[in-house]
Design brief:
By secondary structure, the protein is of the alpha+beta class. It has three domains: about 70 residues, ATP-grasp fold, A domain (Dna Ligase, domain 1); about 120 residues, D-amino Acid Aminotransferase, Chain A, domain 1 (2-Layer Sandwich), CATH 3.30.470; about 180 residues, Rossmann fold (3-Layer(aba) Sandwich), CATH 3.40.50.261. The chain contains twelve helices and 20 strands. Strands 1, 8, 9, 10, 11, 12 and 13 form a seven-stranded antiparallel beta sheet that branches. Strands 16-15-18-19-20 form a five-stranded parallel beta sheet, sandwiched between helices. It has a four-stranded antiparallel beta sheet with strand order 2-7-3-4, with helices on one face. The protein is elongated and about 80 Å long. Bound molecules: guanosine-5'-diphosphate and manganese (II) ion.
């Protein structure tokens, strides 16, 4: 899912008429100070990372002066929050909180629902999972009939919201649902939705994730890769994503794991897994024989030959790799001959320009006999350093990785002799 940081989500809140505290994002303590100065009132400084529970983990701090804002921003920036490095903080006007609510929408994909579920609780500010069920109102929204403004008012009233803030809460929850639909979200959550001492209602936090399959409808979001991606994508990552974005039959995934400079130091192979678990297993086996993976790739879910072909070509394009490893450590029920065809075409095109380049292929499962025949016949005349294995070795990861290591060593020796 394409996830957004709090400050990005709040920008979309404002565009959709949902009030938020005034503020801006800072990359340095000095910037935080300047923002606090401009706001001219006490602020809250909040770590911008994609995890919940930042408050408890020390990622949300109050500051009463610009100097204090600078100081706490210095404490939060660079901190490790649940495994993530904090690079930005949001500096916002402090709210005088009278009440904290929870409002959120998710897609419930259960057979009997298959649609958006709106949730509202008067016990905001804490993890919604820890709120008792009788303190959460839920509504499965019928997307054909749609939601009416009185639905969200009723919902809030049923949970005891009354008086001056009822209208504000109902209005925001109603707008939240429309934003959820308009932006093709999978998750959209305000926790806490705050009522202030002077009866204003504002979104004090935002959790937002957009459905990857809908990103093509939202170029305005500027998301280059419709997957969870915590780093700036590289050229290889971006190219790999085009295979997926242009063809949803089966899955092809590729992520660059080592920079070209690291690969140049030696010991890296191009890595091609089939299925997540099998891919992990193969990577482990390679690491045990002191080989590293330049990339992580996975073609599974019955991909087409063309997807396998393109992925294989991209893996082989990584400069400095000393081998190619197809990690098919599973009896896949997808038809493996598509893999065989894609691999043969890519290897036939690439190997002639890489004399002696080691290739180890493990492929088994459905249509295995046919696949093995395609691989063996397709590569027979290549005079290349290729070894092909089937189900006989599917439980023998250390043997297969050992073969890769032996071939890489041979290849290196030849290269250094030449
Ligand atoms: P999370 O812990 O990652 O969900 O981060 P939140 O944005 O929800 O902040 C955690 C808590 O900090 C909230 O539940 C509030 O109690 C508190 N908080 C956030 N903003 C303000 C503010 O402007 N004023 C005050 N007094 N407390 C705030
Ligand atoms: Mn929160």
């Amino acid at each position: 899912m394409a996830k957004f940081l709090e400050y990005q989500g709040k920008e979309y809140f404002r565009q959709n008429g949902i009030p938020t505290p005034e503020g801006a994002v800072a990359n340095t303590p000095a910037e935080a100070k300047a923002i606090a100065q401009k706001l001219g009132k006490p602020v809250v400084v909040k770590a911008q990372v994609q995890v919940g529970g930042r408050g408890k983990a020390g990622g949300v701090k109050l500051a009463n002066t610009p100097e204090e804002a600078e100081k706490v921003a210095g404490e939060i920036l660079g901190m490790n929050l649940k495994g993530l490095l904090v690079k930005q903080v949001l500096v916002e006007e402090q709210l005088k909180i009278a009440q904290e609510f929870y409002a959120g929408i998710i897609i419930n994909s259960a057979q009997d629902v298959r649609g958006p579920v709106l949730m509202f609780s008067p016990d905001g500010g804490m993890d919604i999972e820890s709120v008792p069920a009788d303190r959460i109102a839920t509504l499965n929204v019928d997307v054909i009939k749609g939601l009416k403004p009185y639905d969200t008012l009723d919902m809030a009233a049923s949970m005891g919201v009354s008086g001056n803030v009822l209208r504000g809460v109902g209005d925001i929850v109603f707008k939240l649902f429309h934003m959820f639909q308009k932006m093709d979200c999978r998750i959209l959550e305000i926790n806490p939705l705050v009522a202030t001492e002077d009866n204003k209602v504002l979104a004090a936090d935002c959790r937002m994730a957009v459905d990857d399959q809908a990103l093509f409808r939202h170029p305005e979001l500027g998301i280059k890769i419709g997957r969870e991606f915590l780093k700036e994508p590289t050229d290889i990552d971006l190219m790999g994503w085009t295979f997926e974005a242009s063809d949803f039959r089966g899955t092809s995934y590729i992520a660059e794991m080592a920079s070209p400079a690291e690969v140049a130091e030696g010991g890296y192979v191009g890595y091609h897994g089939i299925g997540g678990g099998a891919a992990m297993l193969g990577m482990d086996a390679l690491n045990k024989v002191e080989l590293k993976v330049a990339d992580y790739a996975d073609t599974s879910g019955n991909p087409t030959a063309s997807k396998v072909y393109r992925t294989t070509k991209l893996i082989l394009s990584q400069p400095g790799i000393e081998g190619y490893f197809l990690s098919g450590f599973m009896m896949a029920n997808q038809e493996q001959w598509h893999h065989a065809h894609g691999l043969v075409k890519a290897l036939r095109e690439e190997l002639p320009s890489k004399p002696g380049f080691p290739v180890v292929l493990l492929l088994c499962g459905n249509k295995e006999k046919e696949s093995q025949k395609i691989l063996k016949e397709g590569l027979a005349d290549m005079n290349a350093r290729v070894e092909i294995y089937d189900r006989e070795h599917v439980y023998d990861a250390s043997f297969i990785a050992g073969r890769m290591k032996t071939l890489v060593d041979e290849y290196r020796k030849e290269k250094s002799a030449a």
